[in-house]
Structures are given as C-alpha cells and as structure tokens.
Amino acid sequence: MAKKGGREIVALVCSVCKSQNYMTERNKLNMEGKLTLKKYCKRCKQQRLHKETTKLK
Ligand SMILES: [Zn+2]
C-alpha cells in the first residue's frame, strides 16, 4: 500500500519482453494514469517502451 505523502515506488517493465529493468518513484499527487518511459532494455538490447507496475518482484 502507498504511504502518506503520495509517493510510491514502482517498477518499470519492458512492454515487449516483460523484463523488470528499472525502479522509480512516482508521485501520485502530480501524476495520473500509467507511467510510460522509453528506456534501454538489456534483454531486447534496444530502447523499448517501459510501463510501470506496482508488482515488485
Ligand atoms: Zn525488453
């Protein structure tokens, strides 16, 4: 569950291979909807769109 203050740690997973490559903090107060970032994926060996997930492994 999210703590007070609206900050939440989320994982970023590659939208293609589903590899969990990055961890980031998001601020629920400022952002709505899903976070998507274009980042390098080690498994794909190229830039892929990464989507946030709260399911941390
Ligand atoms: Zn990938």
From TrEMBL:
Residues in coiled coil: none
Gene Ontology cellular component annotations, sorted alphabetically: cytoplasm; ribonucleoprotein complex; ribosome
Domain of life, per lineage: Bacteria
Single GO biological process annotation from the record: translation
UniProt entry tagged with the keyword Ribonucleoprotein: yes
One matching Pfam family: Ribosomal_L33
Record keywords: Ribonucleoprotein, Ribosomal protein
GO molecular function, one term: structural constituent of ribosome
Family indicated by similarity: Belongs to the bacterial ribosomal protein bL33 family.
Name of protein: Large ribosomal subunit protein bL33
Native organism: Candidatus Woesebacteria bacterium RIFCSPHIGHO2_01_FULL_38_9
Encoding gene (name): rpmG
